[in-house]
Queue: 4 jobs
Job 1
Amino acid sequence: MESLPLLIVIGVVLSISTFLFFENMAIKAKKQSIEEGEVVVKDCDLGESFIRYDTSKNVAYFFASSYVISLGVAIAGYSPEYGLVEALLYIFVTTFIGSSIIFVLKFKRSLLITVFATFLYGVPLIGASVLAFLTKYLFS
């Protein structure tokens, strides 16, 4: 149980770094669409924004990356005394800390962007972590 806080810190650092990498890719996609002469409309719908910023692709890549990170943490941090409680503790503490960091980083932006970015971090991370720990326990 003494290594669980270290695993949580590793999970937070790696998942935040991965999220910021894919967010940077979304910003580059936006800049590229502006350079290509696309008109940026303030009142565009959510579907157009997803297409313009490659959101679906970046969220899928973040999900896959989070799965690999969580699977690595689950395998590297394996201890026979760890069970479901420790897996859930890792998943939810990592997600809570990471979401809080994303919220603080985006705080000066509009509330919608802040909440949306936090949501796009938390949901894929929870899903990927659950699948990673499930994979780990099914194959051990």
Job 2
Amino acid sequence: METSLSGDELARILATLANPHRMRVIAALASGRNYVSALARELGISRPLLQLHLARLEAAGLVTAAFELSADGKAMKYYDTVPFAVTLTPQSIALAARSLTIEDGEKTP
């Protein structure tokens, strides 16, 4: 993921990572991909709650998902991180802020 993000992309990523559970998910996946049930056990949270957080991370472009069949024929959904780097400096924030959109979809002045 590029470091020169639009204002909206930067805001979406920062808002997504502002949640401690989602930060823990990224941390757990940093060592390699994992499937939902194992990840839920590792993090000590329910699968439905984990799936909500994974959906937010996927929508922000921070993780990807793929279904695979296990040896016994069960469909398992694996998640992995997408390589990304976000550099925050006053200058990078000022640049991104120029492209923020307001609620009606227009660019901010």
Job 3
Amino acid sequence: MSYFEISLWGALLALIVALFITLIRFIMGPTFMDRVVTFDLMTANLIGIITIYAMVSDDELLLDIALVLAMIGFFSITAFAYYIKKRTEK
């Protein structure tokens, strides 16, 4: 096992811990905007986890899944922003 693989496993562990901390913040967030921001952060963490695991396991299909997840995350945050804009205009 090379130093690069060890650092990848360390980064994977750090991202998993960050995902759980973000999940706690998502559950306990007092406002809707806190939940929207943590949802975006959770999506970014998941993309990082999938990408690093794809590098460790040499599975290129996981990179396509990460790309689709990134697109879904982008469109969902755009939809939340549109919803908030419409809600504040009334």
Job 4
Amino acid sequence: MTDDSEVPSGADLEVIKIAVNSLYLSLGFLLKYIEETNDKDVAIAARNALLENLKNGNIDFAIMEDRKTYDFVVSVVERLEIPET
């Protein structure tokens, strides 16, 4: 598998926005799926673990090198809905 983690040079800003929004909706879908197939506590734990690992640098992303990008990514994850308990 190749490492495609870099945004291709010359990528259009609209394409990047679509990708970010798609990933946000995909994460939301995943949390909803976990909630429906397991329970709400598992979905809450998954979201919190993702956020904690992003903040602690346990997920090795290049976003850690740029504070503005890091803050943006963390804010997107923080906006993920927490299932109602």
